[in-house]
Every structure is written in C-alpha cells, then in structure tokens.
Amino acid sequence: MGAGSEWWKSETSRLKLRSAPEAAAQAIRDAIMAGKLKPGDRIIEQQWASFLGIGQPTLREALKELEFQGMVSKSAYRGTYVTQLEAEDYKKLLEVRLPLEVLAIERAAQRMDPDSAAELTSLVDKLIASANSGDMAAFHNADVVFHRRIWEMAGNEYLRLCLETVSLRLFVFSVLDRGSRLPAENQAAAEQHKGILAGLLSGDARAAREAYLAHTVNYWNAHYDVDLSPEMPDCAHRVSVKQDIGPSQP
After folding, report:
1. Helix axis angle, 205-224 relative to 87-110, nearest 10°?
2. How far apart are CA 35 and CA 31, in angstroms?
3. 88-132 pLDDT, tens digit each
4. 249 inside domain
5. 152 lies in which domain range?
6. Whether 91 and 66 share a structural domain
7. pTM for this entry
C-alpha cells in the first residue's frame, strides 16, 4: 500500500482508544481522506486486518460502518472498494444536502453572536490561506469545521446528524477527485465560503439563505457539472422561518 511504517504505528495505536471495529473504521477513513486509499481502490481484507493487528471479522464490522457512511461500496463477487462518485452522484447528494443545509443556515444566521462570527471568519481566512498555498489537507479541514459549526449553531441534533451523513462523502470525495485542481479552482471554493459567511453575518435568515444558495449552486455547477437549480421547495423555507429558535420547552 506504500504507506510509511510510522503512519501504521500511529493507526494501530488508536485501536487501544476505542472499540476495535470503530478504530479500524477510523483508520481506513483517515487513509481515504489522506489519499492513501483512492476512489476505486480495492480494500483487501486480509491485508488490512494484518496491518491493523485485528481479525478479519472485526475488519468486516468496520467496513459495514464505512459502507453505511457511503465511504466504501461492497459487491458480493468483487469485494469492497473505496467509493467513486460520478457527477450524477454529486447531484443526487446535493439535492438532499441543500434543503437540509438551508435550514441550518437560516437558523445559524438568526443565532449569530460575536464569538460565532469571529470563529467562522477565522475559518474562512484559513480557507483562503490554504487555497492560496495549495494546502488541500488544511483546506479540507477548515471546510469541514466551518460547516459543522453552522450545523451546531442551528440547534437541532437530528438536522446535524443528517447533514453529517449526507455531506461527509461530498467533502471527502470532492477533495480526492479534484486534488490536483488549479489554484484558481481553490480560490473559487474559498470565494464560495466568503459569500456564505457574508450572508450569515447579516443575521437575517432570508439573506443568509439566498447567499448560501447562490454561492453554493453556482460553485458546484461551475466546477462539478451537476446542473443544479438555485430554487428550493417552499416547504423547507416555511419550516425554517416558523421554527422557534428560543430555548426548547419540556
């Protein structure tokens, strides 16, 4: 697999910190995110079990978790492979993600405070810096943290979990599929997040929604050929604006 021994020592040491299947799943997930396993690569169970110092039944449990998350795909006759997304897959995932994240964006804008504004601004600054330097690992990390912070600010754990499930594979595979993209593409992605941030900082749900949709849809259409529409179902907006964002009642 071409990985250095120090990396494997680090990964196997993690097995002591959580259950073996969870740790094995995290090790493989990290290998995918680091580009050590690429989209379309086959995961050879015997080899990975040996590298991680676990049995193949334990590894199969880990692979079931990763399959549920969409990180790997399993065939009864061909084995297990790292997921490889096509343009149509991105479109389908985004069609699910966008209405959900619109809800989170609107509520996060209404809950904006100085500390959150400073945190999100700092993350966008990191995105810009890493885009300019070509540091894709730093860019990916700041991207994930930026969106997760918005989901947390929405104050709905079910919404957050849904977005984690749908969005994680988009974050990971969009970086892997376009890891060699030109600096101009990295900068376009950073500009997308600047636009989202500007909407959030307005503190206005509708302005945040419109900024998010405009910048996100335009970016994905331009760089991933997915042909999305910026129009969202009215029901998503009605649910969002009618939601009481105060403390939950018993």
Report:
1. 160
2. 6
3. 888 899 999 999 999 999 999 999 999 999 999 999 999 999 988
4. no
5. 87-242
6. no
7. 0.72
Residue 97, domain member (yes or no) = yes
**Per-chain mean pLDDT for the chain:** 83
Residues 228, 115 share a domain:
yes
State phi, psi for 234 to the nearest 5 degrees.
-60, -30
Model confidence at 225, pLDDT cuts 50, 70, 90, reads: confident
What is the DSSP-derived secondary structure letter of residue 72? Answer: E
Alpha carbon separation from 220 to 59, 68, 130, 187 (Å, rounded): 35, 25, 20, 14
pLDDT digits (tens, 9 = 90+) for 42-82: 999 999 999 999 999 999 999 998 988 788 998 888 899 99
Contact (CB, 8 A) for 43 and 81: yes
* CB 43, CB 58: distance < 8 Å: no
Say if 250 falls within a structural domain.
Answer: no
DSSP strand E in the chain: where? 42-43, 72-75, 79-82
pLDDT of residue 206: 95
What 8-state DSSP symbol labels residue 79? Answer: E
Query: 218 and 171, same structural domain?
Result: yes
Q: Are residues 46 and 117 in the same domain?
A: no
CATH code for the domain of 35 = 1.10.10.10
- Distance between alpha carbon 45 and the CA centroid of its chain, in Å? 26
Count: domains in the chain: 2
